[in-house]
UniProtKB/TrEMBL annotation, chains A, B:
Annotated spans, Disordered: 47-86
Single Gene Ontology BP annotation: regulation of DNA-templated transcription
Residues included from the entire protein: 167 to 386 of 386
Transmembrane portions of the chain: none
Protein name as it appears in the record: Floricaula/leafy-like transcription factor
Amino acid sequence: GDNTIILSQNNTSASFPLNLNSGTDPVLILQNNGHLGNAVSALMGLPDNNYSSDQQAKTLKKQKRRRNKDSTGEDGEGRQREHPFIVTEPGELARGKKNGLDYLFDLYEQCGKFLLEVQHLAKERGEKCPTKVTNQVFRHAKHSGAGYINKPKMRHYVHCYALHCLDVEQSNRLRRGYKERGENVGAWRQACYYPLVTMAKENGLDIEGVFNKHEKLRIW
Amino acid sequence: GDNTIILSQNNTSASFPLNLNSGTDPVLILQNNGHLGNAVSALMGLPDNNYSSDQQAKTLKKQKRRRNKDSTGEDGEGRQREHPFIVTEPGELARGKKNGLDYLFDLYEQCGKFLLEVQHLAKERGEKCPTKVTNQVFRHAKHSGAGYINKPKMRHYVHCYALHCLDVEQSNRLRRGYKERGENVGAWRQACYYPLVTMAKENGLDIEGVFNKHEKLRIW
DNA sequence: AACCCGGGCGACCATCGGACGCTGGTGCC
DNA sequence: GGCACCAGCGTCCGATGGTCGCCCGGGTT
């Protein structure tokens, strides 16, 4: 059934260097219209640039991708795909078969928690210990029942989360603006990128540098 | 023709945290009996442990490895394989068709330099910038004419280099001991591992932690 | 009901980190 | 010269990071 979560935004931060968050500490209402298991707080980021080095013969093999249309009942229970995100303003609950942005950001917090678990497990097994959210972390999340977390999604919105972490005020303003104008999630996502570039420039860093300065973004 | 290089061991260090080097600063004589191009100074390390996570069905497919026996003259010039290392004491020049350990350690310094070059190139191209010695760095080294540097070799001796960086005295003692006893390189290499474990334990860290504390080992 | 928009995420791919073991250089007899 | 030892490094492999685009959910008409 539907599931509503209430949590304070005054998150687990306990920041460290360069915390650009300004501190309005309202109570947020999250929601996943369908499931959910836990909730936390964290931040993230990374640009979508696809530079890649070693320019060479790029075989340029473009072939059709096929999907296994195995839509066979499965179990009858459990949604297949997450509801799409819509642009919501801070604290706003998404209506209908949609998810809001507070919920999106909470997924990043959850990933941070899963990373911590993976790190602890690795440590006590004497294995190599990741400092970033890796494939292994996504796998762990899935195995832990958080099937609604997946790599493509998290990577896709990472710089939106980053803006949220680095400057909540500006992030909130953007959300309200895009909601008001009735823009879709894709447009909002794009828009999140530019403030980050500006912030990086102001601090004389690249985007990655900005991420690394922030406790919660460092793991992305 | 043969090539001898003289350089001060008081290296480019300019350390930073936890520099365990004790500071005898003699003049070292390096040598690669056959080529060589430049020389620097740096340090490195990493254990050979093969933990790996996600224990699973390990397909265990063992198949014959084949080599391209293309020993065709090539050019007539240029050695194919590096001369093997022998255990030499500090400052000792390897005799005959052998290379000494000072030369081995210098290769790690060279790798550090190649990493810096790759980092600068990446930065000015706006590409992703490696913090570690990666495949790309080995590729760059090869392209830059340092064909005598290759990944398997560098990984193989990394913890020997680490010991050298973290405690030259002990490293030197070990070298002298193993040379005296006429042990082969493989035995010496193995022996380098244990002091590192002890050092890690003393500092309450794992091997990787020890590496990360040292300016020059961090890149491995 | 039918249509179309847009976005979730399965699955693909280049590349990586890591290591095995063949090949042949090297010293000894 | 012949042989046995042993180590250099070509080459392979599982897994990763990164992304494309198929497929379908969802709102609208």
